[in-house]
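Troubleshooting: if your tokenizer reports a length mismatch, compare your output against this known-good record of 83 residues.
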Amino acid sequence: MISRIIQIVIGDYWAEIISGHPHCIYYFGPFQTFLEAEAACPGYIDDLKSEGALGIKVVIKRCRPDALTICDEEVSYSNYSVE
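Known-good structure output:
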């Protein structure tokens, strides 16, 4: 019960996947646990790589994204370091 209240207040887990080329931020989720989100990431990464994405970075966090995909001019390049 308490964990569900925390989940409602803080938000569900989401996988934030940032690609360097094209420069986009993708959100995949929601997931109930960190481990569930982490386990799903390899499939998302493989899909992005098959579409030609390079320099992929993954962050799993609790949030409520406003958009599921943010690309190019919408992304502030100074906010992310992508390897």
